[in-house]
Specification:
Elements (H helix, E strand, L loop, with lengths): L1 H5 L5 H18 L1 H4 L3 H12 L4 H4 L14 H22 L7 H4 L4
Length: about 110
């Protein structure tokens, strides 16, 4: 549950690492590891894809960081982690992920 909570952090690096951690756990342990947290995990991941998560909306910006452009390399690696997690959902959940495709495909 801690990794899922970290996907709502206001720091993109933290969120990217949380996505990588979730991906590793569900790929290693299978769908049973995802079952208790699936709803929250899918919701948070969708927020990241639609760029409405706290780390993307600027809710956590402080100390004069508002208005500073994001580093494109950081953004690319961050979104790569998010998209990789979506791929892991598909692999681990199999046909159970089909019901979520209409929500996940447009932002991907």
């Amino acid at each position: 549950n801690e990794l899922v909570a970290l996907t709502k952090d206001d720091d993109k690096d933290t969120v990217g690492k949380a996505c990588e951690g979730i991906q590793s756990v569900i790929e290693l342990c299978g769908p049973h590891a995802l079952a208790p947290i699936a709803s929250e995990c899918l919701t948070n991941t969708h927020s990241l894809l639609t760029k409405t998560a706290p780390c993307q909306t600027g809710e956590g910006e402080m100390f004069g960081e508002v208005g500073l452009p994001d580093d494109d390399d950081d953004h690319d690696s961050f979104m790569t982690s998010v998209c990789d997690l979506v791929g892991a959902f598909g692999r681990v959940m199999g046909t159970h992920f089909v019901q979520y495709l209409p929500q996940f495909l447009p932002p991907v």
